[in-house]
Specification:
Helix content is 34%, strand content 29%. The chain has 223 residues and is of the alpha/beta class.
């Protein structure tokens, strides 16, 4: 699904140069659930941004779904991101003024999938157990329910890669376990999931965990 080869990312100012990613090589298979762990500042978020085509690497090669993406123009990166990638955030990032269904529709509107919106929205909300809340607004939902809606929104565009940034960070343990079960189901359906987390319990839900330190991958565990 994705292959990183010797990826580096350097941030420079007049006084200092910081290497956020240092020769990172990584392969993630289609339908694999991968957890990325490490201390704050180790490069996890930068890695996620590179994988999601939000940030360009300074060097190395990144192939997404068979396409070399490093060096591509911004317009092509935006198209590839829209075709392949969806995000799940710690803070849910739902739009308060929209209903649950409308929040999910947003993902389809960005892709130009308006003709199939109603059917697709109902399908993904049912998949995450939130179809009965379609007419509610985010502030009427619990944190766990909001994250389920965020997962439905990510699934709406039928992405091949979901990037999850601390998806249980604002949830209690019970809701966190339910979110992990949903992400496991997503991976079993064939969608690749890469999750950044500080939680060893969440990482245990993944098929493989890589450990990062100082911009490098320093360890790997398969479950």
């Amino acid at each position: 699904m994705l292959t990183l080869t010797e990826i580096t990312k350097t941030y420079s100012t007049l006084e200092v140069e910081t290497r956020a990613l240092d020769a990172v090589s990584l392969e993630v298979a289609e339908g694999e659930f991968l957890a990325v762990m490490g201390p704050s500042g180790c490069g996890k978020s930068t890695l996620l941004n590179v994988l999601g085509l939000l940030d360009r690497p300074t060097g190395g090669s990144y192939q997404l779904a068979g396409t070399e993406v490093t060096g591509q123009p911004a317009a092509k990166l935006a198209r590839l991101r829209g075709e392949h990638v969806a995000f799940i955030f710690q803070n849910f990032n739902l739009i308060d003024d929209l209903t649950v269904a409308e929040n999910v529709e947003v993902a389809l509107l960005y892709r130009g999938d308006v003709p199939v919106t109603n059917n697709r929205v109902g399908l993904v909300l049912d998949q995450v157990g939130m179809a009965h809340r379609a007419g509610h607004r985010p502030q009427q939902l619990s944190g766990g329910q909001q994250q389920r809606v965020a997962i439905a929104r990510a699934l709406a565009g039928n992405p091949s890669l979901i990037l999850a940034d601390e998806p249980t960070g604002n949830l209690d343990s019970a809701n966190g376990e339910q979110v992990m079960e949903l992400l496991q189901q997503v991976a079993r359906s064939g969608t690749t999931v890469v999750m950044v987390t500080h939680s060893h319990r969440d990482a245990a839900a993944a098929q493989r965990t890589v450990e990062m330190l100082d911009g490098r991958i320093v360890g790997e565990t398969r479950l």
